[in-house]
Amino acid sequence: MKSPSYYTGIFHGIKANEIIDDYLLSYNIGTAVTYLLRAGKKPNNPKKQDIEKAIHHLQFELELLKKQKNYEK
């Protein structure tokens, strides 16, 4: 399946999903990375919006970590 160009790096042609897979990122962290990588590149999609979406997923990931930490005690 072909990815849109805004998910592919300019110099090395590395796709966002390849980075996420290579680093074994969780869903929320991987999604945040994807939003940051495409920020300002997707047509009719403001950079600010992608950054806010990334922050939202990172905040959700932090909440999950806090729950896990409390669960471990």
Number of helices: 3
Helix content: 55-70%
Taking the sheet with the most strands, its summary is: none
Order of helices and strands: HHH
Mean pLDDT: 93
Distance between the termini: 44 Å
β-strand amount:
under 5%
Number of strand elements: 0
Broad structural category:
mainly alpha
Radius of gyration: 14 Å
| Basic shape | flat
Question: Could you characterize the architecture of this molecule?
Answer:
The protein has 73 residues and is an all-alpha fold. 63% of the residues lie in helices and 0% in strands. It has three helices and no strands. Helix 2 runs antiparallel to helix 3 (47-72). The longest helix is centred in the C-terminal third of the chain and has 26 residues, at 47-72. It is flat. It starts with 15 loop residues before the first helix and ends with a helix.
